[in-house]
Amino acid sequence: MIVAEGAGMPPVKLACLDLAGTTIGDISMVERAFAEAIATQGIVPGTSAYARAMVHVHRSRGCPKIEVFRGLFPDNEVQAQAANLAFERSYEGAIERAGLTPLAGTIEALEKLRDAGVKIALITGFSRSTLGRVLSALGWSDRLDLALCPEDAGRGRPYPDMVLTALLRCGIDDVRQVAVAGDSESDMLCGSRAGASIIAGVLTGVHSRERLLSGGATHILDSIADFPALALGTEAVAPTTR
User: Fold this and answer.
1) pLDDT digits (tens, 9 = 90+) for 126-159
2) Which of the residues 96, 102, 106, 175 has the least number of beta carbons within 10 Å of its own beta carbon?
3) Residue 183: which domain range?
4) Residue 241: inside a domain, yes or no?
5) Dihedral sign from CA coordinates of 40, 46, 48, 52
6) Are residues 62 and 140 in the same domain?
7) Is 209 helix (H, G, I), strand (E, B) or coil?
8) Is residue 158 reached through a cis peptide bond, with omega within 30 degrees of 0 on the bond before it?
9) How far apart, in whole angstroms, are the C-alpha atoms of residue 151 and residue 139?
10) Which pTM does this prediction carry?
């Protein structure tokens, strides 16, 4: 259960927000990049191997992309690295062609958090190179305090490293002053393992309410637009029940 601030819970001072499916609407671009990357390794649509591979991709969303491919090609690091490179080229090419669109309410959510003095960290499973392309396309430099990828923290999700790295770099004193939002089970596991007081699963991305709850979500939100009210305690948002 989430305890109200007045009952002893410290105020949220850091918001760790996922990118794909949480703050930007690029789910189809990511899925297509995975499909194209897998195809470069001879696993093509219409085959049972492709269907199995895409199930693995779906289950692994939110994790570092290279780890997703290592899961697909556990005995061939060269193949995993080649697929990862193909993914990055495909996704970055899609950004150049079509750009990126924030999900509805994202900009307003960032502004509300900033106005309230909450630090904002984006955390992602993209590589540093891809994250750089994403940030350049979004132009959010004045809205963020930090943007982290697995390379910056040691390990990616579902491990807690990126949230804890954000806490340290932003000078936050207490893990209970951290709120996490994401659309995948691995986002929820990351926040839970880091000790965040709020772990909000949003329904604009890849995983269902049930998957988010199984990862440790304390709240389920329709979108990131609902997150500031939860993090700032300006509206009563009931915690999830299991």
Assistant:
1) 999 999 999 999 999 889 999 999 999 999 999 9
2) 96
3) 5-26+102-232
4) no
5) positive
6) no
7) helix
8) yes
9) 22
10) 0.91
